[in-house]
Amino acid sequence: MVHISRRNVLASAAAAGATALLASRGAEAAAPSAEQASRPTELAGHEPVTVRWLEGGAPAELAAGTTFGVPWPRGAFAPDQEFSLVTDSGTAIPVQSWPTGWWPDGSVKWTAHATSGAAPRAESYRLVAGEAAAPDSPVTVTSNSRRITVDTGVIAVTFRRGGEHLVESIRRGDTVIAEKGRLVASRQDRPSTEQAEVIRSQFFTSAVEEVTVEQEGPVRAVVKVEGRHRKDRRAWLPFTVRFYLYAGSDAVRVVHTFVYDGDAERDFVGGLGVRFDVPMRGEPHDRHVRFAGQGEGVLSEAVRGITGLRRDPGAAVRQAQVAGQATPDPTTWDQRVTTRLQYIPAFGDYSLHQLTANGFEVHKRTKAGHSWIRVDGGQRARGLAYVGSPSGGLAFGMRNFWQLHPTELEITGAATDTAQATVWMWSPRAGAMDLRFYHDGMGQDTYPEQLEGLEITYEDYEPEFGTPYGVARTTELTFWALESTPSAERVSALADANATPPLLASPPEHNHAAGVFGAWSPVDRSNAARDEVENNLALMHRYYVDSVDQRHWYGFWDYGDVMHDYDRDRHAWRYDVGGYAWDNSELSTDLWLWYHYLRTGDATAFRFAEAMTRHTGEVDMYHLGEWKGLGTRHGVQHWGDSAKQVRISNAGYKRFLYFLTADERVGDVLHELVDADRTFLVLNPGRKLTDEPFDPDPTALGVGKSTDWGALALAWLTEWERNGDEIARTKLINGATTIAALPNSWAQGGNVTYNLADGRFTGPSEPSISIGSLSSVFGLIELMTELLELIDDEQVTAQWVRFCRLYNSTAEEQRLETGSSWGSLNLRQAYSRATAYAAVRLDDAALAERAWRELRTGHAGYPEDHDFTAERVEGPAVLNPVDEARLGTNASAQYGLAAIQCLALVGDHI
């Protein structure tokens, strides 16, 4: 077995010459500072990296294009390094590259790379340092005071700087494929479920407030549009919509985010969508509608059908219509059909609505004012539709269409001169969103009563705290401006690209060698002991993946999260029992899932973690109001619990997706969290446990030095990595150094306070102890593993290593070094990874062996003989057949993280 040394694990093969303390950079810089550039240290470079499609093979279609991130060892490249993307045969593929993360010495840590769907596709590529190939038709951006136009060489998209329409037009050559792209929403003053005699409705459309060009090509252009939905004098539901266009592509990828800023008692959102007008050309029998169903299924219809009639127009005519091609001149048809065309109904309106995760239906009608008729149905539609004619049309779709139900793809007016194509992210057919709190408080009017409630349902209730004001949702869409009606095979390929956008990824071995994300290692089954742990990790992960589908953890506000704990009596997760319901990132579930992907490179693992990040980064945290930057503790509703905490909005859970995909929306969320420490001025997290009045002093705030600071510091670390606000670096370093200067550092008791201005902690000079089991299980261990490799501070290192060594040590050892016992601490299995870290830092084999004993003992987790397999439970004991295992999410997340890090750090002692 290869011995994993301290250098290999903690430096992770980083190149030499980069140990200086925190050479900072300005947010706008894309190259090393003058000081860094003048250093004599030479950059080491790096051999080519092979990147492959995440799902394997070469995809038939891309959703416009793809953008992916690749990490590099410290000291390998300068931020202005160019990269080339080539196939195994040596064909250069046009690629656009830019840095997204920096090492402290100014060398590039992460790069992002974009390639177009128009480029030749292979199963894998080599990313090589060198000049990039230029696209045949580069993206160009032109702008004036009123408009911005992005031209991909195939389509031109014009954006308005103000007004109702985000997109003025999408042209393909001289043909307008779509125009007047806008957002639509509806509101009603009462819920749909209570049969009110009168329900008042309002309909809103987008009002553009700001348009920003974030990238200008040559391969990829990004336009960000911000605004609110407006009706008369009311403007609400703020939105951020990004449009991605790629060289030579006829597609537009769209990332839509809205924030709920209404009153849950009277603002019920009845519909939320994106709509385009689509000019219709040709006769109704040459206009076509397509819907992608489940699997490879496609529904193909004409607005005015000429098949199945009593009189036959002729085989050539029928075949052309079925294929979506222009039919022959009607004078060549059987005239018994031609002379009676006006009597064949033209169905101008279509709807495919997915109101549950397990069922969709398609309906159509001739026009408004007439009845809908049922066409067909199925289980899980892939979320893509088309409307147009042989001379061009619009394909439009929504990712995670059935997972994010209730959704709908709607076409109206296709029998007129202008059709409307709408992606409903919340279908009006479903009834309005009801975001009210789920119970009346049950008399919990005072803090003592609320604490009593916590003792029975684990729900931390407080009046007016269960508000959705400020929560968000992000949805991904794609629009294709097609030159003709696509074949059924092409529709199916577009639907697949829409449902699972192809993504290139570098392998676990390269990512690990680059030294990113702390202590982890690729899967290693080189002996029986390792194999057993790997089996446990794989079985546990598979159980949660399967549970999502078996338990139907889907829906607009829910998809991406998992449940917190299980009720074996009901054979059900405790979805209705207070704090045992939705997990909301409790005990770092997100971290476990991302590390599982990093070490396996598995596509299912990536998509699972990606969905969780989309959810927890939007729904489980606030993006507006005084609680902006705070997350909500686990509960029956994602925003329902009264504990609003930075440990839940934790940037450490989101940075993986950002660096692996360069996703700008995730970048926005990460940047929001830089100032999350300001929330301690408006909300006292410990308000129910003290009689002291809340009178916050910005120079002496009650910010916890472990759980709170760890979450804040992960936001600052990410901002520093991204070359952002200088205050992030300042607060990160000040916090680490001043905590380490306390007599007992992260375990110090007494009145330890935080200065909002500079991030420094101040505390008593006499040693005492105040430590809880949750202190390090919200990312603090992972933060410090990374941070200590980025700074050169002996005291911070020594104090953190001491903390890691002492947590699971004996009371006698704790008293000897800190003056008192640390008490009966919980989650000892989780902290085995802290012991392992100390073992590596101190080169202590006895500590390494102790770490494995702690993991195998399984205190507050899973002991060595724990059964990770699941048993099948069938009806009538349950509503649907399910697999049942003795697993809870707290224990799973922490066992996963502990096992992964023990394997990486002290695997040679297993």
Automatic annotation (TrEMBL):
Keywords: Signal
Signal peptide: 1-29
PcRGLX/YetA-like C-terminal alpha/alpha toroid domain sequence ranges: 501-909
Domain PcRGLX/YetA-like N-terminal RIFT barrel: 48-129
Segments crossing the lipid bilayer: none
UniProt domain PcRGLX/YetA-like central beta-sandwich: residue ranges: 139-495
The keyword Signal is annotated on this UniProt entry: yes
Pfam families in the record: PcRGLX_1st (PF19501), PcRGLX_2nd (PF21345), PcRGLX_3rd (PF21346)
InterPro entries per record: PcRGLX/YetA-like, PcRGLX/YetA_2nd, PcRGLX/YetA_3rd, PcRGLX_1st, TAT_signal
UniProt-recorded name of the protein: Tat pathway signal sequence domain protein
